[in-house]
Amino acid sequence: MPGEGTSRQAVAPLRVMLVDDHALVRAAVRQAIDGGDVELVAEAASAEDAFALALSVRPDVLLLDIDLPGMSGLQMVEELAPRLPETRIVMLTVSDSERDMLEAIGRGAAGYLTKDLSPEALKRALRGTQRGELAMSRRFAARAVRHFADLARRGRLVTGGGNLDGLSPREIDVLRMLAEGLTDREIANALIISTRTVETHVSNVLHKLNVRNRAEAAQRYRASGG
Known about the structure:
about 55% helix, globular, Arc Repressor Mutant, subunit A
């Protein structure tokens, strides 16, 4: 019956993938979240294994450690966020560094959690991502708001067609290198990302600045005094 199908769809569990190189941590997180309305659908111990698996599984939430063998979690966010637009990437780490948190959010993470939170708080944060909430403590949220408010006051975040019209820190990096005449491959090597990710950033820059090509974007950057 139609009603039964709708009901089953409404209670479909939240599909979570976990990336952490410590087996003990993976076991603890698995025990904390698996069951009921949250399902751990995949695990990986390295960035290399996680990359292909995430693209295949396409989870609702990707829990990602910062310190991983092969590639840092921050680099993985930048690589995966453009490829998994429907997946909420949430950092789960021991680092309480404000810099790490801001860089993760700037690269596309939808949250930043530390490993000292309780199992109940972890599940609550994961569920909140499906309502569009940032998965982070009030302390981190306050830091993020202050940071971006400071940027806005200094004129680095501009709305409505201004100099660098809301570009992320990484998009500004790409635009700066573009203005310096670097190729996509050279930019990729400098930032330790793939050329495809560079192309995605360039496309976003052109759209946000409302310019037709890379030359106009580079000219806009130079005119802004960057």
